[in-house]
Queue: 4 jobs
Job 1
Amino acid sequence: LKVQPGIFREDRNNQKVKNVDCEVKSDQAIALQLVGKMSVDCHVVKSGVALNAMMNTAFPVSGKMSIDLVKKEHKVTFESPEKERELFVMRSKPFVYTEESRSQPSADGIRREDKIFKKIDIEGKRIQKSPTVFHTSYGREEFGIEFALDSKMVSRMNKEKTAPFQPLTGPVELRLSCKPGLHAPTQIDIELQQTEDRMRHMSPLERLVYAEENERRNEQRLEVNIHAKHPQHPRTMKIELNAYDQKIEQEDMNDDSEESRIPRRFRHGSSKEAEPGVSMATNNKLKQWANQILRKTIVINMERSPVPNKETQDFRGCVTVKFEYPSAPEWRLLQDRRVKASIDALWGRDCSGNDKMIKMAAKWQKSDEQRRQESMEELQEQQHSDDVNSQEEESERPEKTNIYSACLRDRREGLTETRVCKKALDQRSLLRQLDIDIEYRNLPTWLKEMSSSLKKYAYYTFFDRLTVEDVDVHNEANRIRMRCTINKDQKEMNVSMET
């Protein structure tokens, strides 16, 4: 380990650490054994079921690390494994046991208790006879290091509902390993950089403006360069990550819903009761919050060299993730809001969208049924208030109230966590409808097979609650639209899909 200008503050005259260089060679391993028992104790005889689980984890690390805190450039070097290594292994085995206590007199006349322990492995007709074996591996050609995942387990019989659940059905084994693959690299270098190259070519004034803009947007940039060394077939990969925030104005929310009328109490400022008194600066800030949406954006660009003996062109991939939600705090009684999310994934020869592409847009909002129910609740509440007011004198007539007005009055008195306020927040913030729009093009074969398997699984699982309309249906090609709606009690979900 080497630290410049020094490890201790006295050695570097209270200067900040600039560089850190270290070399590590270790082969750490952790073993853990857990035994869980559930039994019935009858004092003389104890019987129950137990699970014996063992986990082994190995951390073979050999390499160098260099950290530059001034330029914000870091480099890590790993030596690739020369033989197969087990990274993680877990094995569990259930069994039934009985423990009997017997007391027998000894030669000296003292009675001694002996415990007889009997162990029986769980085996029977209610579980499958042969275990289910799963094996998958990745990276043999892509990385030159093959990572393999193997599992072996015993599943319960589908027809036998009284069979035990996992992991009490039988032995379970999970194994994660790695070994050299095709054209295995001798060494792997990883470089991380947090600053941008274009800042080096800026003037001082341009750097100041750029730094202020980044601070306002809370922008973070990271660049990762990976180089796998090999005499004939070296591999390179470059990953750029950019994350930033934006504040945008609230859009018109009435166009997305089939209900043209939003209940009056959902509109900001409709209640006669006001929020607790605050300063003018805070009040202006709250008004800005009420009309602003916070958008978080994450952009990931990846470029790697072609896989030897498999590809002839470089691979490029671009992913853009956006998430929009109200910027106001959660405790504000705002008008009806929506939450949106989108994912744009482009990969293949380039990121122009001419090769493989998936675009997904999700939107959480209040369902039309939810709006109608809340509108009826408001009318019933006002009708009840009118009946009460008709029986009072004009001078003593109370004001019409609902749960939102009652919550605001409680807050003016300093009570923020009352039952009325919790109910008001739950009703206003609960979004029971999710709309998903997916557009795709030129998907790989493995992704098509996975979507087909998921479709078959859904048909098989929900066949008694499934309705399929496939006659005279002309949906748009390469597009999926889905709507999920939760009922009032939040116990049932209705899903409709157009493919």
Note: Residues 368-389 form the longest helix (22 residues).
Job 2
Amino acid sequence: MSTDLQSGKVLRIHEIVNRGSSLDGQAVRTIGKLVQYNAATSTAVLSTNDGTKLTISTRLLDPFPYHLHSLIQVIGEVELSAPGKELFIVPRVARCVDGLDLRLYDEALGIWRQFLEQQGQAQEQDELPSDIFDM
């Protein structure tokens, strides 16, 4: 097993869900609103305003100190519960980012991706409506 940690590709929840199993084992970083937490199963659900949801495993973060409806940023690896089954993230790092201006964050992410594209280092990207992060 390698001890090298990937930095985490910055993706929106929508992009992670759409790419599905192609991200299995890859490190990602994303932001979403905490809409559900289950201490018994060590799982939580992050969501965007359009209803796109992503499950995270909190087993590496327990005790899980975040409150419902907080804006959470996670960095971790994408896993599948079984082939063709639910996709989830096992975050190794999480932080509360309440107060983050999500419109500005999304705009900066777009500019950053344009820069990388110009440099020939583009990540795949999905087109999203500009209000995807209104919460």
Note: The beta strands are 9-10, 27-38, 43-47, 53-57, 71-80, 87-96.
Job 3
Amino acid sequence: ISAVHLACTRTYMYGLPQAKVGAEPEQVLRYYEDSSDGPLWALSTNRPTKIPDCTSCGAAREVEFQIMPQLLYVLGVGQWEDAPDWSTVVVYTCSKHCGGSEVQGQGTLTEFVHVQPAAA
């Protein structure tokens, strides 16, 4: 797993598995080279139960990267009116890396994004 490091405080790690996040508390993005690792979930609720297959080739989708809540702090969203808030954002992509364009002449490929809301 790769991590992008930016300065932030540990308060934005609430609910995330401390054993994994604590080693690199500044990470704002987790890239998964091996999708069997799976994303880090802050909550036991509001997790996707079924990840839809790729709309271009029909292959299963797998987790590619995860946006951590620390990014909110780095962007300073606490100072914004109507600031966004989430526990985690997970992006799932085609496991066959079909690219979409080769399959149906498309210039883009729609991926699946799951946003786990912040705890109330």
Note: The two ends are 29 Å apart (CA to CA).
Job 4
Amino acid sequence: YNQDNTLEMWLEIFLVFVTLFVLFYRYVTKSFGKWKSLGIPYTKPSFPMGTYNFLSGRHLDEMSAEDHKKYLDQGYFGTFLLGKPVLAINDANFLKHIEVKDFDHFVDRTGEAANKKMFAGGDTDKIWAKQLSGISGDGWKELRSAFTPIFTSGKMKGMLKFIKHIAGDLNKEMEEKAKQGEEFELKDVYGKFSLDALASSAFGVNAESFTNKDSKFVRYAASIFKQSKLDIVIIVAKFIPGVPQLLDTLKLNTFKPTETKFFRDIILQTIKNRKETKERKNDLVDLMLDCIKEDTAGNDEDEEESDQYEKDMKLNHTRKGKHNLDEISIVATAMVLLVAGYDTTGMTLSFLSYEMSKNPEAQKKLQEEIDQAYEEAGGEFPDYNAIQSLPYLDMVIHETLRIHSPVGYNTRSATKDYVLPGTDIVIKKDDMVSWNAKSLHFDPKYWTNPTEFYPEHFSKEEKANRNPYA
């Protein structure tokens, strides 16, 4: 009797797991036939990851770029993120509508429902939920309109003093490396520069990247970018029905809780000190505090709209009353600036130097332009306006970003039904679209020398003949 009872118990457990698996399988694969039914070319999905296997060790940017290349002659094609159908865009003219002209339909990156799942958990996870890429709808518009005035040219001029100081530390580090005559990892050096510059201008603190090998600021900032397979499994698991609710109920912090708490405490302490001492450093913390305690003007006097693209990018949002933001909004925004700026800046500067070493003629031309700027400044560091007016420097930076895009894969979630212009494809509310910047940046339709480092891609003449949304 006991043996029969035990066998029956295990059989029931087995049947429960089989039932759960079948339900989960159905949940993930229920939309796998969407693109075929619409007659849209698509990449074949597989359970449970969809089109892209996040556990393969390859970056999503790289995997999606391969698919975009495969469908280069198509304006769009179908993909799947886990079980979610995503319309991948290959045509810059479509992006003009999605990202600019009809942006009111595509304000959200991933949609409110997906954001709630992604940032489910405890108090530190909720901080990430309040940063620009983690909120949606009117909340996103409110945050963006509140903090946009910080980044006008007039405010950026005030930030230059922080960059100049850290640039001196970078020069010293480079001089020491040159004297040693040994190979070194360029990304490490530029990473120190970008982190110290961000820490100084955004957090109002000295990260000591160049002077303190044991700096917690450096260690924790680097840790945020390290993503283990366990981290990926946790992210994927959050999209399993019931898991986000469980994490919220138990208040389990899942994304870098130690590192997040460290930066949260630094920023909150900085805010507290500023309020108590009335000290102003005119860094981003001060400017963000200004934003949440008073209505700010939409535009800076020094800001210019240089072309149609800049005019198109203006956000159409009318705020009702004062900003409804708090200190945690400042914490979240300051932290996302660190995350968005630290690795991307260090990586871009590293690739720029790499391209200069491979293209000595471009390096010589750039050096001559910068030397001329110093000469016109009487041998001193050129001011903000002088740096902004260096045409070849601008061309070199843009060409570096074209070839070595820090962010390739981008997504948007429709906030209301939308018909893709010139087609009969209806993108319904909560449907997603994506595009890959790297694919656009190497498309011969838009670039005269797509596989070469060619700064003249960003000359006035070439820009005038190219779709600006590529």
Note: The radius of gyration is 25 Å.
